[in-house]
């Protein structure tokens, strides 16, 4: 089939006297005049887009004097003399010289126009997100402009909606409710939540005192307010008061309870009752709030916007562009040189090039070598022809390059640098023209399986002065001049799929007859194969309609079976997505990882998430969704739009999105991408900009203070006390006091911090000197808020582990199993900086063992400590139950996640009996070792100390059986949600955590959750691990003893 030119117009090349390329050459010399008076002459390709030329010129001008006087590249636009003799500004830098038709080969750089208010706002935003003045962009200016224009339209629509909001809607935006998806209570938990017919007891606080109030768990918030007002009137013999004057607020948190949800549906109420605690509310006069609220709150709207059509690139195409499907010739490129190589003369290198779709090679890699380095460069003119036609290139294909050094004696090859670039640009046009690509240095902890690094991003290393440069040429394969080869628009893709559909009843068609034997093979391939082999893929693709009908959640397996180097198969898959049922969250997240770069697939995943996820759910998975942005082929993506849209409509989501993006803007691989999203958010949310700026200023003060403490000698007690006095003296300074008072915590907008309680602030003795800070609660009836500030430790692994623990807790809760987990808050705010919620009062196992003044082998210490805290038998029994449940939860969680370095200083216990773990520096089976011997020689920590508490000093041995049954039940529940847990880790492969730098690291979950086994086999597997942990408890006790000796 021949695919059409997008219009029948014949567009020949038009050239003007004075700017025509000489002879057959496509290059000519153009002068570029800068505002500082520098003139840079440059040979440029007549058909290269101006944004590419701009990047080359900008790099060259920095070799001239006065370059430091220039602003950012993006701050300048081009002025040229057009054919009418008039000055004209270039508004679309994706145009080339042939399209612009300048009268003279001279272009002038001028500052882009902008009003002072906009400049001031831009400066505030850049200061907040950490954008320097002279940073190069890692994407071309035209693509950045396209992103801004696309997002600006969406953001403006939301801004207009904000202006028309009612008082309630504005209040909801600042203080969104946290509710469960249903008001029902799992049957297994009904016994733990006392739903007395007379009602549940809550604490209601007024200005003068707190009252006990009994309410029905299905009462609406407004009914609770009315009951509280009546109770107060009867107690104080007051005259009638209007309940509409009040709104419920959670004591100690900046959280409000409103809307027509039953009170039991609010997460705060539900979790309080689960813990046998009375929910505590404060009656707040609406007139005292910064925002006014309406008299009768109603349920917040949950309807989602209607999904847009699949993206269609035709709007950005010229009328003479040609569809790539018409070009059957092999895809080829030209290597023109390698420069600025950081190796000594005479060194030998080898260059590899490959075409990839996700991690799948579309054809064999090509190599050029051995090349010899001379004067930091390799002169090479070599064409590369790949084993795939231009027609079969998928639109998310990326061209990957890697340079290896060759050892002089061993001939061993080591990766030194790499770079990836999309084959199609952001307008779906096949790349062409000369490109200078700055390479990334090798910083991976593991050698890639292939020579190239397809899992690396497509951003260029524009911020490094020492980057090696690879110069390549994308040839104009069809000699189109000003026209382009383009990927077909969506309607042509569907047309192609229709024309190449298998005949009715034939293999691969929707109505093919499938035998029982084929169904059994399909079941084996879908559910019991860790890896798909070619015959598995062929079977799944053949039966793709059967998978859609019977196993729609296995879409990822179908996508893995597509031949992405066949445009007809890609078209068929695109069409199939149109009729594929929406996926549940577990499986929609799966197809957002690096394996699935196709923009139609990713759009389908986002629409599924948008339909399924509440704002609370988005918050829960925000960590992974932000990381998934790194797998996008271009700056604009539906995932970025989805996150921005949700954040702009919910300030709590905006808070989390901001800090997850802001904490990585130091990383040059994502600086441009993440900064653009942040700029869009902050530009359209000036109120939140002020709040976040205050938090950033507070963090700067804490960083400075911590740096001061780090430089202080604290070898003995006297020096530590002097350092503490110095620290408190600094905190008493007016600038520090003002900056650290009356702000919302970066950890959570629910924490409103009043003033620092300086006398309770101190630093820890560990190497990085973390700051232990105590704030008075802005809510006068709330408890103090304690936060630890860390500087010098990478908190990303802790963040991920704690998030997964929270997800596990939610999974168990949904199944009616409450294991009293304590996933405290943790937030990275910058490179090796962040905050951790302090859980108090709690003691480490080591402290309790030292209190008992016995050895680490004495199993009685924990139980005796609990007996001291709970003199009453009933209270002690409740504490033991709390211990049993939480211990079971952490035993299973630490086993599944392979959490290592467990000792008695990172296992803590609260006086309530709740056990929890802290410090997650080792996971996914990366256990500490000494002299090549692993310290952890048991699957999880289950010592005789724990069993002694669980059995109440060996007096109730049946508790031991119940504990094991609880562990087994918890394990099987998690195993059923293996796809979700696996997806959450696979989406984090790009985050830079050393122990999760490869997909192989995430496969550790296969070892622990054994998804390929039947449930019966899996249970037997876990029972073996449980017995191993129990029998090996003496080994753990030895570890505890060694740790205490070394303290």
Detailed description of the structure:
- Helices cover 38% and strands 17% of the residues.
- With 1047 residues, it is of the alpha+beta class.
- It has 6 domains: 1-113, Ubiquitin-like (UB roll) (Roll), CATH 3.10.20; 115-169 and 614-684, Phosphatidylinositol 3-kinase, accessory domain (PIK) (Serine Threonine Protein Phosphatase 5, Tetratricopeptide repeat); 177-288, Ubiquitin-like (UB roll), CATH 3.10.20; 333-383 and 397-461, C2 domain (Immunoglobulin-like, Sandwich); 488-612, Phosphatidylinositol 3-kinase, accessory domain (PIK) (Serine Threonine Protein Phosphatase 5, Tetratricopeptide repeat); 839-1046, Phosphatidylinositol 3-/4-kinase, catalytic domain (Phosphatidylinositol 3-kinase Catalytic Subunit, Chain A, Domain 5), CATH 1.10.1070.
- The longest helix is centred in the middle third of the chain and has 25 residues, at 686-710.
- The protein has 33 helices and 34 strands.
- The strands form 8 sheets. Strands 23, 24, 25, 26, 27, 28 and 29 form a 7-stranded antiparallel β-sheet that branches. Strands 13, 14, 15, 17, 18 and 20 form a 6-stranded antiparallel β-sheet that branches.
